[in-house]
Amino acid sequence: MQNLSNQPVKSAHELKRKYEAGERDFRAAELSKADLQETYLEGVDLSGANLDAAKLSKADLSGANLSGVYLRKANLRGANLSGADLFKDKLVGADLSEADLRGADLRGANLNGANLNAAKYDSYTVFPEDFDPISAKMMQLEE
């Protein structure tokens, strides 16, 4: 469902309420420092959103469009990002430890200083050029 108000979402409470009502289009949302821990947001479109320093640990963002999202210093520990589009995301200093990145598209993402320890990936995960998941201490899972 499209964002009918054309106004960017500006709070975690508003995002959750609209998601539960069936809305999925939250492009350009302003959610820096938002607490979305353990929130179910499968298939959401947050492209171009600002989620800097957001708390997203154990959130379900599987299949989400997160392209061009600002996630600097965000806590994504244990988040489900399987099949998510993270194209050209800014993940500088983000905590992605134990996150599920199977089938995720991370092409062009900035992962400088990101913690990817024990994050899961598979042969369908697409990484930025010259990125080495083994040196990042990620775990490859078989299909």
Automatic annotation (TrEMBL):
Q: What is this protein called?
A: Pentapeptide repeat-containing protein
The record's InterPro entries line, in alphabetical order, gives: 5peptide_repeat (IPR001646), Pentapeptide-BTB/POZ_domain (IPR051082)
Question: PANTHER family attached here?
Answer: BTB_POZ DOMAIN-CONTAINING PROTEIN KCTD9
